[in-house]
């Protein structure tokens, strides 16, 4: 009986993950295309997020921010929880500001929180620091 319950629980978790990946891939793909249209390059980043032990697709909502990397600045599109859905390549600060501005002008609001989640890392947003 216990073995059967564990089996069904695992199957449910696997299906939940699979469904989250599929739905998240569609949502992140839309953000990737918006990034591509504005920046000429757009990379899909995360399709799922884990909240309270459950896998969920990245959110439908879109916000934009800039983060830094050793190679340069990266413009990102995130959901309301700060999980990245799409990103530009690493570029110079001025080019990142221009892409960020174009995304804002296209109707994507700025991500107001201080940190985002990209891959397994939490990174600070820097758009307010570089525009000052």
Kindly describe this structure.
The chain is α+β, with helices and mostly antiparallel strands. Helix content is 42%, strand content 27%. It has one domain (2-130). The protein contains three helices and eight strands. The protein is elongated, with a radius of gyration of 17 Å.
Strand percent estimate: 25-35%
Order of helices and strands: HEEEEEEHEEH
| Backbone shape | elongated
Number of strands: 8
Strand order of the largest sheet: 1-6-5-4
What is the typical, i.e. mean, pLDDT?
92
- In terms of structural class, how would the helical and strand content be classed? alpha+beta
Gyration radius (Cα, Å) is 17 Å
Task: Note the total helix count.
Answer: 3
> How far apart, in Å, are the first and last alpha carbons?
63 Å
Q: What percent of the residues sit in helical stretches (DSSP H or I)?
A: 40-55%
Q: What low-confidence regions span 5 or more consecutive residues with pLDDT below 50?
A: none
Q: Profile the largest sheet.
A: 4 strands, antiparallel
The number of domains: 1
Short description:
This protein is of the alpha+beta class and 132 residues long. The protein has 3 helices and 8 strands; from the N terminus they run αββββββαββα.
